[in-house]
């Protein structure tokens, strides 16, 4: 294989001699890089890189926060040069400088026995060497995430003398050559021995940047992380004035490249620190190949929203034996411009108080916004598919945490292991799915595939997981399924508090309200009725009010439906249970007030009753009483 020099100027470390620095105070750096694609075994050699999963990283962070250890970050200098060869006989053609220095002939080659930059399997060989060193130092490799390691020591019960749960000293995660860790004195001594074997280029504590994410540890052990600086550096796409008004015009190659750039940059933030924009970024990703100027404008809007609403997430110091998880699952079916069904998953770490209908602390651990991977026929089918995927993700995270606490646990049989773990919660706003999951008798359902899927989920819930139902206004994963306002989720992330209420109490309250619809007539014209909530986000100074449409009476006796929640379809009272008057008493004409400046008069019956306006709007719909 051939090789070449890569020359670069680097910042001085302060250890260099003055004559070795440039006039600008920089040091020269030369790196010999192999042209790896010339490897004869490129198709079969192991070339996977040690990349820490998001769930693995969050498990490490949670362990550090729960034990109130100091958060650490390190990177290994010249990591790829530490790898040992895999036994293959490889040779390189050295550059002229190296050939001259070693006195080699024109046809001589160098044997490549170890790791080298550019070698196709260099990351894998480096990880194998690092892993073996950690194991020699007493660490145990996580069976579910091979790039997470824990340090444990045997522990014996003082009364019986028998072995008990191993004592946990610390853990670390490795992402290529960057590590994140935390532990007690025993762990720090072990890490010091590892540093003697692999020189650390940087070793930072409490506040640092790791894989593009800014981390900061507070005095109480909690960890805050964000990508505010990263998002601020993303530049919006410049659109020519002549093109801005051509919203339906397809993008040219240059515009499409710019769209891919901004969407890719936003996607990295949406995956790691910004669940509030995940659905919007996902919609832009799916539209890239057929994108128009409108999509380019929308990408700039999403970027502006991300910059305007800065979000920081937390990892809370919850005691390890009290830590549990609450997963929110939601789905949308044929909503807005998005075809098919889309699902949203949002998993929080919390305490058992949440399941006791008490105000509890919550912190996001994992989230996902994606298309349902199969064809569904209804909203219930979409909700069932979303619940199935959410249960899978919840089980995985619980297993990761169970092993960190006790590496001797029987992780290969999760159905048994999770029954002994702290009870977790699965939250849905679909009452039909909730009934299928909780009732002993199988309710009538025309979609038998959905019924079977719900029954399978019910079996999974035997793993010490309770299903809870909330109203749609309190579903935090709602903004992960479609493009909508994410302020409710951002409020919960900012306050770090949430509370569940008993489902039976909520349903009873809603039933009583339906029997008192005449009360609406006595409401003040400008004040919406108060709706009982099944969940509420608790704040220290105020309570965020959920967006909810409501009825009111106009000054001339007209009936008005006020649309607070953005919608794209015109409103018709057909099928609306809380309409305060008999539909037969209404005139067939209606007036749709879109915003403040647009008003349309048509009919609320017929083929155009639920006409799509073409964009999200708020306002009101006015109906007139006969006679």
What does this structure look like?
This protein is of the alpha+beta class and 627 residues long. 28% of the residues lie in helices and 27% in strands. The protein contains 15 helices and 27 strands. A hairpin with a 7-residue loop joins strand 15 and strand 16. Residues 511-546 have low confidence and may be disordered.
Query: How much of the residues is beta strand, in percent?
Result: 25-35%
Strand order of the largest sheet: 6-7-8-9-3-10
Shape: globular
Strand element count: 27
Q: Stretches where pLDDT falls below 50 for ≥5 residues?
A: 511-546
- How much helical structure, as a percent, in the residues? 25-40%
* Oligomer status: single chain
How many distinct helices? 15
Report the span from N to C terminus: 92 Å
Number of domains: 4
Characteristic terms for this protein:
627 residues; alpha+beta; five-stranded mixed beta sheet; single chain; Nucleotidyltransferase, domain 5; 4 domains; globular; six-stranded antiparallel beta sheet
Offer a quick outline of the entry.
With 627 residues, this protein is of the alpha+beta class.
Record the SSE blueprint.
Blueprint: E1 3-11, E2 26-34, H1 54-66, E3 72-76, E4 91-92, H2 96-101, E5 110-111, H3 122-136, E6 139-141, E7 148-156, E8 163-175, E9 178-183, H4 185-197, E10 200-205, E11 207-210, E12 213-217, E13 223-226, H5 228-233, H6 241-244, H7 253-272, H8 278-286, H9 293-308, E14 313-315, E15 324-333, E16 341-350, E17 360-361, E18 363-371, H10 379-405, H11 414-417, E19 424-428, H12 431-438, H13 448-460, E20 465-469, H14 487-495, E21 497-500, H15 503-514, E22 535-536, E23 550-553, E24 559-569, E25 586-594, E26 598-603, E27 612-625
Parallel strand pairs: 15-19, 19-20
Antiparallel strand pairs: 1-2, 3-9, 3-10, 4-5, 6-7, 7-8, 8-9, 11-12, 12-13, 13-14, 15-16, 16-18, 17-21, 21-22, 23-24, 24-27, 25-26, 25-27
């Amino acid at each position: 294989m051939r090789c070449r020099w890569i020359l670069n100027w680097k910042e001085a470390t302060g250890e260099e001699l003055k004559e070795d620095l440039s006039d600008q105070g920089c040091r020269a750096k030369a790196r010999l890089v192999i042209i790896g694609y010339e490897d004869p075994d490129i198709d079969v050699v192991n070339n996977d890189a040690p990349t820490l999963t998001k769930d693995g990283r969050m498990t490490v962070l949670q362990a550090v926060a729960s034990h109130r250890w100091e958060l650490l970050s390190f990177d290994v200098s010249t990591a790829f040069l530490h790898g040992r060869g895999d036994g293959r006989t490889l040779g390189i053609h050295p550059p002229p400088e190296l050939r001259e220095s070693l006195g080699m002939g024109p046809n001589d080659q160098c044997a490549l026995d170890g790791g080298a930059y550019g070698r196709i399997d260099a990351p894998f060989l480096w990880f194998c060497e690092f892993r073996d060193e950690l194991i020699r130092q007493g660490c145990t490799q996580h069976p579910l995430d091979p790039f997470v390691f824990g340090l444990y020591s045997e522990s014996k019960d003082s009364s019986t003398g028998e072995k008990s749960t191993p004592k946990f000293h610390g853990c670390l995660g490795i992402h290529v050559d960057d590590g994140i860790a935390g532990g007690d004195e025993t762990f720090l001594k072990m890490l010091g021995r590892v540093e003697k074997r692999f020189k650390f280029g940087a070793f930072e504590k409490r506040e640092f940047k790791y894989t593009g994410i800014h981390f900061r540890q507070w005095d109480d052990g909690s960890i805050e992380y964000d990508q505010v600086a990263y998002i601020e550096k993303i530049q919006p796409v410049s659109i020519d004035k002549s093109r801005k008004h051509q919203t339906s015009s397809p993008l040219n190659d240059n515009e499409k490249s710019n769209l891919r750039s901004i969407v890719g940059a936003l996607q990295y933030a949406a995956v790691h620190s910004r669940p509030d924009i995940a659905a919007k970024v996902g919609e832009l990703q799916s539209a890239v190949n057929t994108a128009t100027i409108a999509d380019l404008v929308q990408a700039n809007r999403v970027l502006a929203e991300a910059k305007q609403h800065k979000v920081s997430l937390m990892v809370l110091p919850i005691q390890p034996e009290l830590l549990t998880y609450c997963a929110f699952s939601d789905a949308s079916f044929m909503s807005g411009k998005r075809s098919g069904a889309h699902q949203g998953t949002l998993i929080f770490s919390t305490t058992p108080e949440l399941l006791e209908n008490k105000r509890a602390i919550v912190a996001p651990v994992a989230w996902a916004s994606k298309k349902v991977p199969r064809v569904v026929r209804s909203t219930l089918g979409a909700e069932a598919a979303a619940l199935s995927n959410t249960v899978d993700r919840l089980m995985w995270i619980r297993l990761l945490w169970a092993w960190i606490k006790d590496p001797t646990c029987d992780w290969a049989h999760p159905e048994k292991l999770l029954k002994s773990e702290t009870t977790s919660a699965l939250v849905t706003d679909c009452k039909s799915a909730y009934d299928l999951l909780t009732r002993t008798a199988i309710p009538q359902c025309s979609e038998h595939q959905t019924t079977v899927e719900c029954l399978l989920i019910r079996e999974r819930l035997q793993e010490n997981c309770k299903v809870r139902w909330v109203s749609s206004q309190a579903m935090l994963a709602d903004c992960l399924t479609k493009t909508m306002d994410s302020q409710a989720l951002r409020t919960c992330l900012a306050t770090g508090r949430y509370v569940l209420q008993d489902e039976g109490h909520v349903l009873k309250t809603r039933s009583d309200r339906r029997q008192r619809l005449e009360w609406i007539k006595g409401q003040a014209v400008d004040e919406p009725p108060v709706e009982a909530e099944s969940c509420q986000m608790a704040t220290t100074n105020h309570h965020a009010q959920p967006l909810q449409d409501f009825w009111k009476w106009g000054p001339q006796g007209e009936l008005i439906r006020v649309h607070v929640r953005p919608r794209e379809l015109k409103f018709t009272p057909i099928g609306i249970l809380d309409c305060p008057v008999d539909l037969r008493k209404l005139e067939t004409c209606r007036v749709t007030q879109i915003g403040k400046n647009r008003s349309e008069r048509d009919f609320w019956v017929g083929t155009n009753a639920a006409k799509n306006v073409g964009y999200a709007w708020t306002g009101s719909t006015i109906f007139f009483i006969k006679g």
